[in-house]
Structures
1.
Amino acid sequence: MDILTKIQEEVAKSLLVHYECDVDSDTVLINQTKADFEGDYTVVLFPYIKKVKRSPDELGNTIGTHLKESVADISDFNIVKGFLNVSFSDQYLVKQLDSISQIENYGDFPKRSEKVMVEFSSPNTNKPLHLGHIRTILLGWSMSKIYEKAGYDVFKTCIANDRGIAICKSMTSWKNYGNGETPESSGIKGDFLVGKYYVEFDKHLTKEYQEWQASESASNLFKSKAKDEQTEEAFFKAYKNTYFNEHSAIGKQVKEMLLKWEDGDEETKALWSQMNNWVYDGHNATYANLGVSFDKIYYESETYLKGKDVILEGLKDNTFYKEKDGSIWVDLEDVGLDKKIILRSDGTSVYLTQDLGTADIRYAEQAAEKMVYVVGDEQDYHFKVLFEIMKKLGRSYANGLYHLSYGMIDLPTGKMKSREGTVVDADDLVEEVIEEARKGAKERGEVSQLDKDAQDEIFRRIGLGALKFYILKVNPKKRMMFNPQESVDMQGQTGPYIQNAFVRISSIFRKLGDIPELDFSAYALEPAEKELVKSLLQYPQVIEQAANNYDPSLVASFSYVLAKQFHKMYHDVRILSAETEVAKVFRLRLCKTVGNVLESSLNLLGIEMPERM
């Protein structure tokens, strides 16, 4: 039994013995004592004050005295209003450090039977990965690592949105204006080349639309359709999508290409396959640079037909209904949503079509009890609809579906170098943070003696550590701003600050042999040492909380606090020149354990530790 469970039981026993107040020990609330107060853990007394009709001080003294007598490792207590703060003895904390320092993979939970599938990235195959993708990639990868640490069987996956109108826009544009250009002939990375033609398509559509607006038919349309006092500029700004669907010549080419693709036209399929492969090569290079991978990538082109089967199934049992134009819909008004189209009148799919099919296919293959979709908060409504449809269809896995919704990510300048001119590309951002790390390291001059390859690896680890930590330290639900220069600051709440703590620890042990075994039973902890041991003891709890709350920022916050406490101890006490041999060996063991946990916690964020900085 761990000590916190023991305290819960003894608090419940004290309430029963002294006040005949029967409470479930599991409901006794215990928090870590705030830094401003003396103590290690705090028992919240407020739920019992009215029940026993005693003052907070009297109740706290009764329970505190009982705890001190019944829990040998509690050395003292104090009461602050409705809070009972208890302190652990140095001997207890020393024993706990001795225990965790001998656990090879401290923080690992026993293997669980549950399987968790995490879907992340899920890009369209018509452009490079961009700044928004970086947040979903890092969140998905980190949650996968956290779930693994928490004992779950984890399956990492991605759905490539490799078909549809957007893909056909790039294909039509390349066919019309590409003159046979390839990544090899142009020297342009494949995903950037396809993205170039996606942008090119919009330029031609915009030009066509502007020319059409000057026509008599457009003028007549405005007169007949415009609302009262609506300007031509406002009307035509809102009308662009309708123009694409009903009037545009290039839009007609795109829709014809989509129908040809769905009909299996060989020439269309060959062009689609060629351009998608260019994008896959580019995306895979970006994934490799970020240090992430997938157990399996699913393709919308292979799952949307299964989605159509699901829709036909729902149509037969009246879960779905058909409109007069042949389109198929679902009515979700009974659960506070609205009516939603799930198959167009011409038989072509919408996003929900492939998501329905993909969910069924993945459950059939993986039987995951939980499926976590890491997707931006602009898709909140989409996933509410998807999950409710699965419930209406009676899918056994429907209650295990979860949307890890995250806020958008911005830059102070709005954009950095972007080959598309409108978004921040992931490759450019990675290059930027590595260059910032390079500049900072050169200014300090601490790695100048290493060869170029070794330096480049250090710059890569620091730069990527800065990028990943800066993004993951923010609660996923919050919109955030990423500042490349601020991310590599060695003094702030940053990845490099934590990496520097690890490097300091590594430097201590670089020339040392094994740490001897000594008797620490009478060792008196310094305040900085005590804080470090208490934080180390929290690590398993932090992992479980991060898994349960879908929140890697809890791990990031823990690792920062641990690094900060280590830097303070490094400043406050001597280590290699400690006042006694016992103090020296204890501090070395403490440093070693802190280094291991820092490396483990940053690994959960996908961050590698450099040996030098």
2.
Amino acid sequence: MAATSDDIVNLLRQRRIIASGQIVDSLRMHPDPAKLLDMGGKIDFHKGLLTQEIFSKLTELYPSSGQETNLTSTPKVSTTDAPSDLGRVIAPIAAPEPLDLEFRNNLPDWDENDYSCHAVDAPTDITVHYDITGKSTTEGKMNDITACFSDRLNKIRDMIVKNSKLPRRPTEVARLLREVHRYQGYENKAVAIGLVNEPRYTKNGHLMWSLEDETGEMNCLLTKRQGDDRDRFQEQIIEAGLMPDDVLGVSGTFSQNGDIFYVDDLHFPMKERHQKASSPFGVSVAFLSDIHVGSKTFLEAQWHKMVRWFHTDPLAKTIKYLILSGDCVDGVGIYPGQDKELAIPDLFGQYSEFARLLELLPDWVECLMLPGNHDAVRPAEPQPTFEKDIQQDYNTTTFVGNPCDFSLHGVRLLSYHGKSIDDFVAGLKTVTYADPVEAMRQMLRRRHLAPQWGGKTPLSPEPEDGLVINEVPDIFVTGHVHGHACVDFKGTTLVCSSTWQDQTSYQRMLGFQPKPCMLTIVNLQSHATTAIPFV
């Protein structure tokens, strides 16, 4: 009697091996599949993709092993060879067999000169510049909130002075209010830098807000201009709006009674152009996010297809690093009714399963993993990394907090899960879920990942604001919104990481269609980019 397909699939999963349906059928008919796979030690095959070529070699080696072969006996499928480092044991879940799906629209073209180094030929070089893990000191008191905003204001004010063309040095708001008569008319402009409070539109479509620094607060007005007086940048600001708690500079003059500051120009901290650094090694980094293992809508067959690609494609051999920007598991109790949509209802079981899926990748791939809003960490950002009882299931993964500012071979990356995109969509008219990259552009313009306090994104008031973008990254990556994009913005490569989850019931209700199973690849030397579809 032959073994069942489920027996063979379980055997392969225990050994971290993936195989096509044809090879599964061949193993099912073999008299001793476990002993056949044991032959892999003689050809240095222990895990990964079991190709037809490798299977043929194992079959050739099998009779020479000295074992008796009885074709009439019941095939043996060992269940005692599972690795001991898999962590918690969860109820077995029937895994779909890897499907032999074809690439949509074939594969994108890529030039070997742009991806010039194999991952195995370069050393691992990960330098973390900022990560809140182990450094959170807030007690959530008013003094902590004040210190956080003061730190934000001081840092971004320095950036504005350095990177913007201010007509003069900024003056404290309190002093400007005392000397309003000096700054009336067009001859003598005043400059101030502060935090935006209560941005709003007038009935005529002008933009109003109050600007606050450590000394005081003044009312600002940016008017819509007509004809030759129109300024394209100011039109864009009026069209988009401002985020509460933005830090920006204003230059202009006061009204006759001094109660309104008429803004002639706005000044943001983003410099005009960033010059990318390049790695001495031509290895690549790949990006994924929002994999949502444990959900019934996790696309497991497509994951196995990607694993096969990693083991066989020439481009994959250049990928040294895989950045996982949060929500790698679906979590438990994240939203009402989630339990009905879970294939793995145990949180630790979800992390164990994701660890197993990562183990299928080739040994040359180094993973870096940070949390998101579905993960088992505090919801307030910046978020520390995962607890040790979660990390124990993972062998070759570097765990960091969210966000994380780090370098790979001298190339600076900023990875942020992207929860604040919800606030940018709600707060700025030009940002939509269909174009999440616009939210990333706005973050870089403001040099802050989540400016709004009290919005959709919970924030931790650390004495040092960990969401200020202190250094402009060469590569800036987010996830969260289940979209996909890779563009250049003023010298920084913006990557919106793709999801590995199909459309959820909530997304279907909103009419939102995700862009799943796209692996974005960026070369660290040439900065060439490409995206591989696995749908």
3.
Amino acid sequence: MKKKLVNSSFLIVMIIGNLLFSEYVVKGQAVKIVLQSTPWHFSGGSALSALSTQKTNGTFTVPFDSSSFTIKMRVNLKVENSKINLLTIPGVLNLTTFQQDPKDRKKQNYPAYPMPDGSVPVLEAALTLYPPFEPKGPRDMPIGIPLAMLKKPQGEHDVVLHFSGVRWTLYVDNELLDNDFAIGYPKWGKQSSWEINPSLVSKAEIFFPGLEPQKVALKKPRTSNEIEYWTPQGHNTWVGDVATFYYQGRYHVFYLFDRRGHNSKFGKGGHYFEHLSTTDFKTWTEHEAATPIEAQWETIGTGVPFVFDNKFCLSYGLHTTRIYPREQTMLPLQWDYYNKHGFTGSFRYDTIPGYPAGSTYSISEDGISKFNKTKILFHPCENPSVYIDPEGRLRMLANYGAKGTWESKSINGGWRSINPNFPPGGDCTFFFRWGNYDYIIGGFTGFWTKPASAPEDKFENGVKAGLDFYNGMNVPAVTKIKDGRYLMAGWIPIAGWGGSLVIHEMVQSPDGRIGTKWMKEIIPATEKEKTLAKEIKKTTSFDTGSSSFLLTFDVEPGTDLSGKLGSLFLGSDGENHACEVQVSPKAKRAQYGKGQISNFSSAEKSLHEGGSPSGARNYALENLAGTDKPFTVRIMVKYEDKFGGSQFDTEIAGQRTMIAFRPDLKVQKILFRSDATGIKNIKIATLKN
């Protein structure tokens, strides 16, 4: 695709549209998400053994089937400086409280909920498991919570520890607050002993087999506000790869729900597709999980929604080789079949020996949610991107364990390779057509485009031309909605692999160039805005008054090709964790850079220059559109204790966005500077809680 400038009529339309959105930003109403979240209760069963303050330790006979268990306790939680043992079963588990380093967010992200004095007391239960094929032997699987997330951090609470054989879960006062997915089982002796802390635990009961938790029906469902920059409820819960679809007037967001930033299940893939949807983008519904983990071997990877044979489906991969050797999975069987016949087979994995691996899919019962696993393996690739192309052909882009373009008459096998080398695979590639152009995007860096009328071998690399649209989102998904609008959704890395959800609207120029802007329906609501300055002619700083806010200003580009402006965002520690948004209008470049009070930040690289937008830290954009004439910049800054820093979302001239995350930055002040570029009408509005 040849580099072209966006034509003047397109610029005028986009600038006007950008101005029209400003009224919405200030007066917009908050989005509402209706959650699945409810309390849980455990009933039935007879306790195999019980302990109380009159009997602080004892032994019990473990039944033959010890694959699941439940422990119910009454605990008096206290904030102590030292580590306190609450319950111990030697060689099996320990329940403790301790003080977490407020700066250590590894795995559990306990500092998401600090006490008023900044301390982070923690309740944690560690279960000792014996994973298969683990040369290091047994491993502890901890689950826990920062006490500050409880309404009353100190005092008596009902604590339940539940091991189902698949999940290891902590409940406090009937709320599910943390869990992980097991690999292996604890080793119980025929006789086991346990001990409780009599000063803090008034009662403990253990049940074999475990009691199955039941949801408590609520008359009024729980809700959450704002979908933009959203993360699931909890201290260590994040959004991973996003897959979107628009079907029968409803926009669906499937996302890999992940705790601990890819470190659940001992880092082997403890994530699965959760599901949100909306018909108006103002009220969202959280549905039951589309692909829950139901067995120890399940490690679910990226896929895409699609409709085939009038059925709403979700493809996804099984990354089983993360746990078991390849020869013990069904991958050799599938590749042998393909090599013999020239097309893939169809295998019901619940009827064949070996651990399932490769491509599978689920089907919705009602065309909205209620997904059921087909248990059919249709291809050995482990991140299938299935779609119906504009000509009505069933196709798939293969990723992770395979590559290229494939085609079939049926989803259930029969897939033939029609282009073995393109696209080259990766995390997840994705096809869409918009008007007269076809596009294929990769998970982090790939981008190819061609005219829709051109042969399939005419895709050109847009990254090499500096014409990609990566903006900090990871594994973006593109979906056409009503009125011909296109949305791009992805996740921003905050906790390693995983972070917050971001949805932007896409824009397209007549030459096929793609850009992005904020979607007006979901821009976070703000309080009344105020003007900081009508015009700035020299370096000027302002207090923000809030750590989460919307900043807008107008830019006069000037005539100097090297002219640039910078907005430097500072916290209490000065420039140590500062972030600068820098725009060079005539050079058509913008960047996030390491903030400096004394001068502009150094030049960063764009994707095609070797930079890394997917890291969402310091990087540059090139070939901006709309910056050769007066334009508006909008910057959303979102701070949360859970993030442990600030997320930045910048929109430039209504045609390009760029997103970054700054750990340890809580903005208090903004410093503006420019050379040969005018900054006018600087306004700020605090985000509503």
4.
Amino acid sequence: MTNNNNMQPIFILPEDTKRTTGRDAQRNNIAAAKAVAQTVRTTLGPKGMDKMIVDSMGGVIVTNDGVTILKEMQIEHPAAKMVVEVAKTQEDVVGDGTTTAVVLAGELLKKAEDLLDQDIHPTVLARGYRLAEVEAQNILKRICEHISLQDEDLLNNIAITAMTGKGAEANKEPLAKLIVKAVKGLTEMIDGKLRVNVANIKVEKRVGDGIEESELIEGIVLDKEKVHTEMPVKVENAKIALLDSALEIKNTEIDAKIQITNPDQLNSFLEQEERSLKMMVEKVKLSGANVLFCQKGIDDLAQHFLAKAKVLAVRRVSKSDMEKLAQATGAKIISNWKELSEEDLGYAGLVREEKVANEESIFVEKCLNPKAMTLLVRGGTEHVAEEIKRAVTDALGDLAAALKEGKVVAGAGSTEIELALGLKRYASTLSGKEQLAVQAFAEAMEIIPRTLAENAGLDPIDVLTKLRLEHERNNKWAGINVFTGEVMDAWKSGVIEPLKIKTQALSSAAEVAEMILRIDDVILGGKSEHHQLPPNMHGLM
């Protein structure tokens, strides 16, 4: 910065601070956001490709899940990080549609850049985008269809749509049936609204066997083994105790010295410890429990007494698993073994230990009215199983979102073309430069069907022309069949998505685009112990 009187530079920032201002700052930020969108764009749709990410430790992830890719890439650029936040929000709120949200944000900024080059002020653009987003949400509310828990075919189609183009695609029909069954079993009506607690559906993966061997356990599967070999492998009509304290002799909080002067004292000291452990096990046995899940440790001697009492015990069960066990079996989690009584026990028809692909697992199944279930997905290798788990998790999120809102739309690019058409009509009713911003927003919507076409090796211009023509003839669910290249009725073809995916992706993408557009000054702090970003900040990693 300079002082006009004597042209003497005045430094108001530390010497090694990097600063980019005006159009340069905007260009840099938009370039970074576009680069993020470009990274995940090829993964969109049934014909989307996968990415292989290798971390610094040599760990490999193969996926086409947008948020997984962006999280694992460890993106450094500040504006790019803001776009990654869009994907994370989409994942947290809906559980699917992360790629759509990021691609939309990138395209909104790309269209805005053209208008910035025509000297349209960023705040005018941001205001126009805000108007367009509000109108888009209204259009979505008008065109969406209703869904209820009884529409089994629709629910199946939502799950199948979520898994199409992912690792689970080959077996999407049987998997969809399991997912729908799990969601229907855990859906409750609260204050006139459907509530699905997806957190109570545990998705466990096991390597070995084919995807078709996946199953729904009406109970919980734990990645654990019994603590003692002499314990029963299988317990029918299990009465289950849940304990979140250790079955061990506690060390005193303060340093204590015990002086022992002869061997008898040592023996009595050890016998006292043994009696205490025996008392703990007796208490468990007295309650009538024949299965014990402990959140903390179980002493070796206590394990021996439990095995003699024919109690199947598991230790160091995570807090979240303890809560799911309580939901599934109806047991209460007890903090002190002394308090354990028969009323606190839960019930399961069968508790068994089974080796699945060299991993011991504890199955708690045949619960009477389980409020928690487990989807056990299998895959031939670690990477396959992991990707199927991600696909199943996405499908669960979609179903929960669809039932919670009770509203769905068709996919295959049909909703976006309908939005683009509606927004173009709305733009013609506006005066002033906002009209150009709304027009740009409408054009940006078409990036989704365009990307679907490109990823399928089709000519995007041909596809978009055909789609626009069908929508002008009031075929609101006309979408692209990426396998034939023809236009299809996406609703009749069963390509169904929850409305929440679209509304959330739209609002997140529009908000991040507005925020990035309003930045005209980027000040990068001086060097810290962490490595510095390059001054031009074009790099993503």
